[in-house]
Amino acid sequence: MTIASVLLTVLAAQSFEQRGFVENRTTAYPQTAPNDSGHVVDEILVREDASYKLTPWLTVNGGFDARMDSHRQTAREWVLNADDRSIPRPPFSLRRLSATMHRGRVTAEIGRQLIRWGKTDILNPTDRFAPRDYLSSVVDADFLGVSAARVTYESGGETIDLVWQPWFTPSRTPLLNQRWTVVPPQAAGVNVVDAGARYPGGSQYGARWNHIGAGYEYSLCFFDGFQNLPSFDVLFSPMTQTAALTRVYPQLRLYGGDAAVPLRWLTLKGEAAYFTSSTPGAEEYALYVIQLERQVKEWSFAGGYAGSAVTREAANPLQFAPDRGFAKSFVGRAGLTIDANRDLAIESAVRAGGSFVRFEYSQLFGQHWRATGGIAWIRGDMADFLGQYRRNSYGSLAIRYSF
Amino acid sequence: MSKLLIPLLALAPAFAQDPRQIILEVQKRQHSDSQRYEGTLEVISQGNQVATKRWTYQRIGSFGNSKAILRFTAPAEVKGVGLLIVNHPDRASDQWMWRPAIGRDQRIALQDRSTRFFGTDFSFEDLEERDVDQYDYKLLADEGATWKIESRPRKSSQYAYSYFWIKKDNYTFVRIEAYSKKGLVRTIDYKDQEQIQGIWTARVTEVYDVARKSRTILKYEKLDYNLPMKDDDFTLQALRREL
C-alpha cells in the first residue's frame, strides 16, 4: 500500500517538456577564397531539447542535434557523437544529457550540459565552460555542451557556483580547406594538412560567487583548466612541402569578475579576466569588456569596448583566438522589435585594422515558421583578425520551423 | 441589530471615501498566499494582425511583497523563456529574464521597464506589483457604481499618474488609464469578472497601447489561488532549472 502510494505520488509529479526546431540556412558568399571556391553553403539543423521531471526534485534533461550540409562541414557517418571533440561537425551529437537535482537552496546538474558565465553580451572573458563551434563562421558561433558536474548554492542574493569538468571539450575550429581558415600568404605553395588534435587529459574546475544587491550585481570567479581555443604545432616536411598542423590546448588559469550597475539612463556592464598558463611559451593576457546598454521603446542598444593586454607573448604565433581577435574593438548591437512578429538587428565590431557589420531582419509566420535574412560585411587588412576574413562577406537566409 | 454594529455602519461610507483605504480594501479582498494560471495572449496590431502567445504564471506571497515566475509555453520558438519578478514593499521590483536558447539570464534594469514585454502590450513595469504605500491617492469622482481614483507613484515609474476605476460592490478594478507627462500611454480593462475561491477575479485583461494602437487580450485559464508552493521555486536557480 505504501509502495503504491509512493509510486502514485511519483507518477503524479512527472511532467514532460520539449522544444525544438528544424532550420535550413543558406549562406551565399559573393567572393571565393584561395582555399575555398564555393559560393553557396546550405546547412540543415534539427535540434530537440527535452526534460522529464521524474520527481519534484529530480529532472532528466536531453538535447540532441542532427545536421547535414552541402560543404562537407559535417562528417558523413552514422554515429552519435557524445563529446563533440571531432574536427568536422558530427551529424548526430548530444548537446545535453544530464540529471538536475534540487533540494532547498542547492541545485546540482550532472552530465552533459551548457554552462554560461559572465554578464556582458558582446564578449565574455569569464565564460570558460562554454566552448563554441566556429567551424562555419567566426562571427556567428553556436555554443557546445560540456560534460561536467555543477553544484549551485543560492541564498538570498548570494550564489556560489562550483563546476568540475572531467573531460575536455574544445571549441570547434574552421576546417583548414575552407574559407574561415585563412592561410597566410607566406605559406603559399605549402600543402597544409590537418593532423588532428592532442587533447589534454586532466580535468577542469572553477568557482564563481555572485552577489545581487538592490539594483546591481557583481561576481568573482576562478577557473583552472585548459584553453578551449587551440594553438597549432607545425610539422614541416621540406621534401614534400607539407605542413601538418596539430591542435594543442595550453593549460589556462583565470581570475575574473563581472558587474552590472544600472545608472540613471544606462546600464553599465563590465567583465574582465586575467589568464595565466603553466604551459611553456603560452600567452598570458588580460581581456576586459566595458558595455553600456539601454532600451528605448522598441529599440535596444548595447555598445562598448573590448580590450586586451598581453603580459607574456606567445612563443607560438599560430593560434586560433577569436576572443583576442575581437578585443581592441568598439562593438555595438542594436535591435528593433517592429511588432509582435518582426524584428530587426544590427551588430558591428570596429578595430583599427578591420571591421564587421551585420544586418538581420526576422519575421515570424503563424505559430511555427520564422524567416531570417541577413547581410554581413567584413572589411580590413590581411594582418588583422577581422580583416583577414574580408573575402567572407555574405548574405544568408534561414527558414526555421519550431515545434 | 447589536449596539456595536451601529457606529461601525455609520462610519463605513466615510471610511470608504478615503482612496487609500479603498485600495487597501481591494488588496485585502484579493489577498491570496499564492496564485497560478495559464494565460493566452492575443496581440492585435494596428493592422489587425494577430499573434498568439501562451504563458504560465505562478506567484507566491502577498500583494506587493511577492515573487512570481512567468514562463512562455507558446509559440514554440519562445517556449521556456521566463521572467522572475521579485516584488518589494518599499521599492520597485527586481526582474530577470531567462532565455534558454542562449543559457543566459538578463537583469531588467529599472530604466528599461517601460519596454514592451516580449512583443506584448504589457511593459515590464506592468507585470510588477507595487505596494499601496508606493503611491499617493486622490479620490476624483464617485461615479455611481465605481470610484475614480488618481494614483501618483512616489518612486521612479514610466507613468506620471494613473486613473483607477474600482467597482463599489466588490472592490475590483474595472479600468486603469496610465499617463506619462506627455499624455495617455496605456489603458487596461478588466473584464468577465467572476468569483474564484471566494476572490473576485477578472478572466480577461485587455491592454491597449495608445502610441502603437496595439491591443493585447490576456485570457486567464486554470486559475487557482492558495495552492501549496515553495519559496525555493521562485529563485534565479528555479528560473534556470526549467527547460
Describe the structure.
By secondary structure, chain A is mostly beta strands. Chain A contains 2 helices and 24 strands. Chain A has helices spanning 2-13, 322-325; strands at residues 15-28, 40-55, 58-69, 80-81, 92-103, 106-113, 132-133, 142-143, 146-155, 158-165, 191-198, 204-212, 217-226, 231-237, 242-248, 251-262, 267-276, 284-296, 299-312, 329-337, 342-350, 354-365, 369-380, 394-402. The radius of gyration of chain A is 22 Å and the shape is globular. A 13-stranded antiparallel β-sheet of chain B has the order 6-5-4-3-2-1-13-12-11-10-9-8-7. The interface between A and B is large, with 50 and 38 residues.
Radius of gyration of chain B using CA atoms only: 19 Å
**Multimerization status:** heterodimer
Please work out how many helical segments of chain A DSSP would assign: 2
Q: Name the shape of chain A in a single word.
A: globular
Specify the structural class of chain A. mainly beta
How much helical structure, as a percent, in the residues of chain A? under 10%
Give the helix proportion of chain B (percent range): 10-25%
Brief summary of the model shown:
By secondary structure, chain A is mainly β.
Overview features:
heterodimer, A: mainly beta, 18-stranded antiparallel β-barrel, three-stranded mixed beta sheet, B: mainly beta, 3 helices, 13 strands, globular, disordered N terminus
